[in-house]
């Protein structure tokens, strides 16, 4: 299942956006208002839970300096990645696209598609808080 949030223009340089996103504690700023728990475990992992949902641990899988950050589920039970691609528009403006890619059976995909789409949309909208 692949979901892409609307691209968001951010009034920050590519380097500043990359720096913000690679500091995982900053993801708390991007989370929806329905966040129930947020905890940085270490420099490469954080945990979050939305109200009524199970806790999810995300870990840094890879990054390409100033261009891309890939976070993924720390558990193999629900394998997915959350990718941020950063493109420079001008030296002081960047475009960020967030995408979700997961491997789920058809029933699971049907159940989580709407909540994940909404979650990705919120993350994208909140990029303006950088």
TrEMBL record:
Top-level taxon of the source organism: Bacteria
Name the UniProt record assigns to this protein: SRPBCC family protein
Lineage: Bacteria, Pseudomonadati, Bacteroidota, Flavobacteriia, Flavobacteriales
């Amino acid at each position: 299942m692949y979901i892409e949030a609307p691209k968001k223009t951010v009034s920050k340089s590519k380097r500043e956006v990359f720096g913000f996103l690679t500091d995982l504690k900053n993801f708390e700023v991007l989370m929806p208002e329905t966040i129930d728990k947020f905890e940085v475990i270490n420099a490469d992992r954080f945990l979050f839970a939305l109200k009524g949902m199970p806790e999810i641990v995300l870990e840094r899988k890879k990054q390409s300096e100033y261009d891309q950050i890939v976070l993924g589920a720390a558990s193999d039970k629900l394998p997915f990645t959350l990718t941020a691609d950063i493109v420079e528009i001008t030296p002081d403006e960047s475009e960020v696209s967030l995408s979700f890619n997961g491997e789920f059976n058809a029933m699971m995909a049907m159940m989580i598609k709407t909540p994940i789409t909404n979650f990705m949309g919120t993350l994208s909208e909140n990029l303006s808080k950088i």
